[in-house]
UniProtKB/TrEMBL annotation, chain A:
GO molecular function: nucleotide binding
Entry protein name: NADH-dependent dehydrogenase
Lineage start: Bacteria, Bacillati, Actinomycetota, Actinomycetes, Kitasatosporales
Residue spans crossing the bilayer: none
Ranges where the GFO/IDH/MocA-like oxidoreductase domain occurs: 133-256
Domain (Gfo/Idh/MocA-like oxidoreductase N-terminal): residue spans on this chain: 40-122
Pfam families on file: GFO_IDH_MocA, GFO_IDH_MocA_C3
From TrEMBL, chain B:
Top-level taxon of the source organism: Bacteria
Gfo/Idh/MocA-like oxidoreductase N-terminal domain residues: 5-117
Protein name per UniProt: NADH-dependent dehydrogenase
Gene3D superfamilies noted in UniProt: Dihydrodipicolinate Reductase, domain 2, NAD(P)-binding Rossmann-like Domain
Pfam families: GFO_IDH_MocA, GFO_IDH_MocA_C3
Cross-referenced InterPro entries: Gfo/Idh/MocA-like_OxRdtase_N (IPR000683), Gfo/Idh/MocA_Oxidoreductases (IPR051450), GFO_IDH_MocA-like_dom (IPR055170), NAD(P)-bd_dom_sf (IPR036291)
UniProt-listed SUPFAM superfamilies: Glyceraldehyde-3-phosphate dehydrogenase-like, C-terminal domain (SSF55347), NAD(P)-binding Rossmann-fold domains (SSF51735)
GO molecular function: nucleotide binding
Every GFO/IDH/MocA-like oxidoreductase domain range: 125-248
Amino acid sequence: MRVAVLSFAHVHAATYVELLRDRDGIDLITADPDAPPGDATRGRALAERLGAPYADTWDEVFSLPLDAVVVCGENARHRPLVERAAAAGAHVLCEKPLATTEDDARAMIDACARAGVGLMTAYPVRFSPAFDALHRSLTDGSLGDLVSVHGTNNGTNPARIRGWFADPELAGGGAVMDHTVHLADLMDVLLHGEQATEVYAQANTVLEPDSPVETAGLVTVRYPSGAVATIDCSWSQPPAHPTWGGLTLTCVGERAIVEFDAFPRLLGGFDAINGRARWEPGGTDLDAAMLDEFLDAARTRRRPRPDGEAGLRSLRIVLAAYASLRTGRPAAVG
Amino acid sequence: MAELDIALIGAGGIARTHLPAWAALGARVRVYAPDPHTATLAHEFGATTADSLHDAISGADAVDICTPTDTHHDIALTAIAAGAHVLCEKPLALGAADAEEMADAADAAGVRLYPGHVVRYFPAYARLRAAVAGGELGRVAVARFTRTGRYPTWSRWFADPGRSGGILIDQMIHDLDIARWLFGEVIRVHAYQRGHFTAPAPAGAVATGGAVLTHEGGVISQVVGVWAPPATRFRTTFHVAGTGGTVRYDSLAAPGLRVTGTVAEEDGIPAGDFGESPYLTQIREFAEAFAGGPAPRVSARDGVAAVRIAEAAAHSARTGRAVELTATKEGTPT
């Protein structure tokens, strides 16, 4: 099957390209025509470094018969690529957040539905076997009813590598937009798609005083069933840290407390050659597991999980967080 | 230090931590509590007993109030009226108005009143304070604190919000105080609580609370408290991120001694921390201040401010709203 990776704007694009390049039965094509001219970390330069076939224009990519596309554009530029892919009959895996507005997300969902293609939102963490075990502990009753959930998704500031992450128009926001959605999606799994009702958020730019978008944030999410999730979505991992960051989720249930670490440390120690702590993550390759689901759904023409609706539900939580940031008060979702 | 005559009121869990500290400092202690275990407890630590609150307080240099929170105010005012200094277990009172009345009375009587915010004396938190105050973390952006212990079913009053204030006021006040101590005055609070909040709490009861604080200097912090299922090990954690990096702590992560191979669950080998008891460090500092020494690291006004934040958190949890706090005479934390 032919799979296109559209745009290298998102830092995850290179990972997807490498994974798809190394898979049997995948005819890979890539394109990044919106890359800043001369940016050696994007465009043809990156494709060549990754050993991936490259097309210079969107038209050139879409002139090929495409089975599936992975959209890695800037958050606000997902929609036109998704709509065009859908019109071309390709199944779509779209980087998170699905969009920066509810209108865009809805239009993308509708376009894919009309075209009869699947739309998947790129939430790799739900493919962790450890998270699956956490989910099972909830469904089989051993965790008991969920009382509260406490999540962290901290990472280095991605705007240091890709400046658009700090562009309010292209990114739709900062750390709250970038990181809240992962944990919101895990809650979406645990609560079977229950839409949150209210969000309270506080944020600041202390870590990057000149940043036009927030770099640290604390978000509290309430659900109709009563469950509450607190989320630290800050870009608070220091840039020199040996690992990009991580994601954890602590579930307090009526019968147990379960702590999930999506990127547990495999090896510690000290790296004397580079003079810094050794910190090597282990665990499953979540991006590969997510691509498995996407490619299988595309092949068998079934609905992928998480779908566009799941992407929209977590986006609504983020949009409510921004409404809360504007007023300093809890904001209703939707 | 001159030998102090101490009236210790109460014979519960906190009295058991204070008595060995007073004994280590050579204080003469008489214990009063309407509790059949009082004589046994006093005897264990070489203390005597008093037959009434009046008898205990009469002639004491200082009164150590280790009773349920709803009784602090009246006992403290009685002690202050008798001219005794007061160490009052946290929270000072269930409400800020009562706490303030206690602090005002102590000022008017020329006696010292200190709240038992003992977490300021735990080595990790004392070191964190030094690191933050010394600029080792640069400008702090965001912080998280958690406190998890089994639901305090051993004494009926904890589960009764009318007596303890519930998890937000009884348990989370520790980290609310720490957050204010580290990051300054709190101008906005949003909080929730979930779980079991009526007395008597059945075995296996669970409750959680969460609060997001906005400090006047721009730091945002999150405090999470859990009263957990019975087999939960007591654990506290923090994570603080600033422009100078991050600092994290987990009280279970690096014990001085870890016991893993036992026949039964409790096998009698002491494990955990082996340094000086933070309760002794605290009480030594207070005792020196009672004897005319330097001011301790926590003041009565700090105790009032902590209750004010906790009360605001409880109000937020009831109403679902964020609560704005305005500057008061507590002023900047010391």
